[in-house]
Amino acid sequence: MALAETPFRLVRAQGGGAVSAYTHASGSDTPSFDILGVADDAMDEEGEQDTGLLAMPGQSVATSLKYMRGHGCYLDASQDAIVSSLSGTIEKVNKLVSVRPVRTRYRPEVGDLVIGRITDVQSRRWKVDIGANTDASLQLSSINLPGGVQRKKLESDELQMRQFFQEGDLVVAEVQSLFQDGSVGLHTRSLRYGKLRNGALAVIPPVLVRRHKSHFLSLMQLPGHGVDLVLGLNGWVWVSKHIPFDMAKAEGEGADKDDVLGRGVAIHTDGVYSDVNEAIPVTTRQSISLVCQVLAVFAHQGWPVSDAALEQACALGASMDGPLHAPALLQCLTRARQSRS
User: Fold this and answer.
1) Cβ(116)–Cβ(186) under 8 Å?
2) Which residues form the S1 motif domain (predicted)?
């Protein structure tokens, strides 16, 4: 499928539930990596080569005299070398070398910020699709109650679980625990976690998402008062209308207001679990569409997604004259990358 044909599609909740999100199929094509600079022994004895290079099956990625073999590699005793067993990017942690597949499902780690979709409501928990091998589990005890009330969850809370999250809802959460059977536990006990509204979902290969100090970004240079991004490490990226984060309320200084209960929690009692989107101006919708197209270009070309790269690419796209089309945006971004190199 050509990049210009990657459409927006409305993803409806099961059972006719409310939908507050659109999905952009930007991760449907296989990323194409530039491998011209990758030679055998991509990580030599001195370890001068950086990680992130592409390795092919059968390619020597490091010497076994100084490095240990990780996932995606095997030892070649005839060459004293560590050889890649698959096509992927080389990763090095101290003396451990591994190869991460280019096309694979997301592998959760504790502390990862992820975006998922509620697939089922069960007894005292929700099942969440995060793009991993199995659905994750979000326990009723791992969420904030409306109004920020800090108490043990009761049977009455279990009876109204669908008022918190229902099938089809998009949520941002954090990986809390991993179990031996491969299942994943999530939590949303944070002001920035919970149900997502007022935006669009872009799906890209998880291998392209770089780890950042914060995965909540704001691109304020875009028209329409900017947009907010949530970079999920599972490759799901949420692009939405910019909403200022009130640090005073986060610190509990706004606890005297009527719509906030509990010091240090500062969760609005109205709308915290709402499915209703706010009115979004046309300029903001265009900015959201621009960011989704930029992410589609990054996914199509196999470019790593970082905060700096996104800011530069979106600024370039916003400066283009005339209607924005993916081929023209791709050509513009490619020229910009070539000029910098």
Assistant:
1) yes
2) 109-189
Burial class from Cβ neighbours inside 10 Å (0-12, 13-18, 19+) for residue 280 reads: middle
| Distance in angstroms (rounded) separating the CA atoms of residues 7 and 185 | 32
Instruction: State the DSSP string of 226-246.
Output: -EEEEE-TTSEEEEEE-----
What CATH class has 3-30+108-340? mainly beta
Domain pair 3-30+108-340 / 54-101, same fold: yes
The CA radius of gyration of the chain, in Å to the nearest whole number, is 22
- Please check whether residue 200 is in contact with residue 22, taking contact to mean a CB–CB distance below 8 angstroms: yes
Quick one: pLDDT band at residue 224, thresholds 50, 70, 90?
confident
The 10 Å CB-count burial string (b at 16+, else e) for 133-147 is eebbbbebebbbbbb
pLDDT of residue 68: 93
Nearest to 195 by CA among 163, 158, 235: 163
For residue 1, name the pLDDT band (cuts at 50, 70, 90): very low
Per cent of the chain over pLDDT 90 is 35
Which residues, including other chains, have CB under 8 Å from residue 263's CB and lie 6 or more apart?
252, 255
Structure tokens at 116: 């998922």
> Could you state, in order of their start, the residue ranges of all structural domains in the chain?
3-30+108-340, 54-101
Residue-wise pLDDT for 119-130, tens only, equals: 999 999 999 999
